[in-house]
């Protein structure tokens, strides 16, 4: 694998990222529709997607704004939803940390759930890849997703409420996360974290401003970390 050219790794990444197009397009359409219903015009919607480039956080912020949630809560909630991206970055640092600064800056902007999911699996399975091959693969994995996310957002913003509810585009978000989380449930700690987060989210559904999700996320991470520590003690 070490003899493979960077170009070949770009196309490997492109191939691995292509299936997520079927999620990115309806997800982008849904956000465009949602944004226009929330009162944003096409230019504002496109600027939101291009600068933030974080679908889940964008949906969270818009939903809370529609509910007249205080600005501080909106910002905290959006940051909390995107906290996973910081963890993605930390996870990728051993593989991409030696790349030039400008490449790391581009990669930071392009880190999304799909590019991380593809890249971390490839990097773990092929530890002999060079830094340049890893970066090229990473960029390739997000190349089919990024332009179609932007295009989907534009079409959704233009079409607005003309898209029939029967299309059920609101399923794009949960399907995306289920598709990515499922293969990552490889240890008992992962399963414990997911189950605890689900239970706590259901128990705190009545908490104002969707703060129950923040509580559930924190509970899941704590439970997962404790489960991992217990497993390590058992092994030793």
Mean pLDDT: 82
- Write down the Rg: 19 Å
Low-confidence stretches: none
- The number of helices is 13
Family: Belongs to the AzlC family.
Subcellular location: Cell membrane
InterPro entries: Brnchd-chn_aa_trnsp_permease
Transmembrane segments: 20-40, 46-65, 72-90, 135-157, 163-181, 188-207
Please render the helix and strand layout as text.
Layout lengths: L5 H12 L3 H17 L4 H11 L2 H12 L4 H11 L1 H14 L4 H10 L2 H13 L5 H12 L3 H14 L12 H13 L3 H16 L7 H25 L1
What does this structure look like?
This protein is mostly helical and 236 residues long. The chain has 2 domains: 6-184, no CATH class; 185-236, no CATH class. The protein contains 13 helices and no strands. The protein has helices spanning 6-17, 21-37, 42-52, 55-66, 71-81, 83-96, 101-110, 113-125, 131-142, 146-159, 172-184, 188-203, 211-235. Helix 2 runs parallel beside helix 4 (55-66) and helix 6 (83-96) packs parallel to helix 8 (113-125). The radius of gyration is 19 Å and the shape is globular. It starts with 5 loop residues before the first helix and ends with a helix. 31% of the residues are buried.
């Amino acid at each position: 694998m070490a003899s493979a050219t960077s170009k070949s790794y770009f196309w490997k990444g492109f191939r691995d990222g292509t299936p997520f197009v079927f999620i990115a397009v309806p997800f982008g359409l849904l956000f465009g529709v949602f944004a226009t219903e929330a009162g944003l015009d096409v230019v504002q919607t496109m600027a939101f997607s291009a600068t933030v480039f974080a679908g889940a956080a964008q949906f969270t912020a818009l939903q809370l704004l529609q509910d007249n949630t205080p600005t501080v809560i909106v910002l905290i909630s959006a940051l909390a939803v995107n906290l996973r991206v910081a963890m993605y970055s930390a996870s990728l640092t051993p593989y991409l940390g030696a790349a030039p600064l400008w490449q790391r800056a581009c990669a930071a902007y392009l880190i999304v759930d799909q590019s991380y999911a593809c890249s971390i699996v490839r990097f773990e399975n092929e530890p002999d890849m060079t830094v340049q091959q890893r970066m090229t693969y990473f960029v390739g994995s997000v190349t089919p997703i990024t332009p179609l996310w932007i295009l989907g957002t534009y079409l959704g913003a233009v079409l607005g409420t003309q898209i029939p509810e029967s299309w059920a585009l609101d399923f794009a978000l949960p399907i995306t996360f289920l598709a990515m989380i499922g293969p990552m449930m490889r240890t008992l700690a992962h399963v414990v974290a997911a189950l605890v987060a689900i239970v706590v989210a259901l128990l705190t559904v009545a908490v104002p401003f969707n703060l129950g999700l923040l509580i559930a996320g924190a509970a899941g991470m704590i439970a997962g970390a404790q489960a991992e520590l217990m497993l390590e003690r058992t092994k030793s």
